[in-house]
Amino acid sequence: MTTKREPIHMVWFKRDLRLEDHEPLQRALEQKEPVLCLFVFEQLLIEDSHYSQRHWDFIKESIRDLNSALKVYETKILAINSDIISACNLISNSYQIKQVFSHQESGIQVTFDRDKAFKRYCKNNLIAWHESIQNGVIRGLKNRDLWFENWNNIMSQPLIQFTAKISDFLNIDAIHELENQCQTTNLETLKDKPFQQGGTKTANKYLQSFLHTRHKDYMFHISKPEKSRKSCSRLSPYIAWGNLSVRQVYQASKANYESSRFTKQLSAFRSRLRWQAHFIQKFEMEHVMEKVSVNKGYHKLKKSISNQYQVAWKTGQTGFPLVDASMRCLNETGYINFRMRALLVSFFTHILWQPWQDASKHLSQQFLDFEPGIHFPQLQMQAGETGINNLRIYNPIKNSLEHDPDGTFIKRWVPELRNLELPFVHEPYLMTPLDQQFNNFELGVTYPFPIVDLKSRRKQASDILWNMKNNSEVRNESFRILNKHTINNRSRMIDNKD
What we know:
Low-confidence stretches: 491-498
Distance between the termini: 63 Å
Mean pLDDT: 95
Radius of gyration: 25 Å
CATH class of the largest domain: Mainly Alpha
């Protein structure tokens, strides 16, 4: 005789680790049966080389924050090591899963393949799977007609309020019973890590401090490697992992607009929220970008791989101080500003002449805010392999002098240069043997010689890439990309006052 199983609804949390403005959660709570909240630490992602421990720790901190908020409802997130299908099979031994609610995910290929398999599983097991769009990114678009209007409409809709009562959830005792049958995840993380801490509570602190005080210098410091660490919002990891929705951030910024004396700074910030969604939408529509250049004309571009160059770049030992400071800072803290990210990619792909694919995994592992829909389009844009963007080959010395003129950032992250006179902080290779003697400094020992000749390498990259941009296949692909992704009246992407 088959035991009748209690029907439940399940919310599958992924990159949406919050309670507020969470459509799948609220839709589940509107059903009659109890709701189980699930997060699966999937082996397919843990083993994927784009991820690292800093990501899993951020997620664990976010789940702990969620559990703290859910405690009053006498429930918690069921956090287990498994895959989604095995997790559902295990839960189905005790409960009848009627519906699964989740957000759509614009992730790497393995998550797309997983979702296709889960869709088949749900169909075969008579489970209704409902997916909601995330942050205005729409699946299945063929072009960008009316994309701006749709995105703006989504951002303007009222926030979805989290409203629940104790009886809405599967209770804590029932979850403990499920935990006894699963391989649960230890949610403890190391303390005093040099990374931003996960969770909506911390995310809101960053949001409020930015909107109330830090935004005043946003555009003035956005390109400065040291000053940007305070003047930029620092919200990217909280948006990437869904501790806050883009709509929450967008509307909070608008609400603060009238009371701020620095409205241009907030307008510029909101325009970047739009551009973030634009790039994720582009990745959603061009998923091949994870592996190959979106412009097929660049598939014939071949570069010789140098393990020596790549190791020097990854460890901040290239002999170019701003490049090395940026990489060491990123490796240590998980964050650098946009310009320094662009500099690292440009240096790797242009000056070292290495394929962008070889930079992808190291950078994604280090970026605490790793977001596939931003990561791959930006890599290709900075590598100059889209055919539609301006070719930018960043000069690390020029950027050093312009954006870190007093050497504060370099001295902090490349302490070998801390006691040198300022000109040598930017260009230590200019020191004569006598200069080195006076400073108790030896080039090639205390700090490496430049790994390549900057001038000749910049010229080589420029000549090759400008020549390729005029290639007929590159140009035809450029027209295709523009027709598919160009937003009508791009100036509307720049927020003034709405």
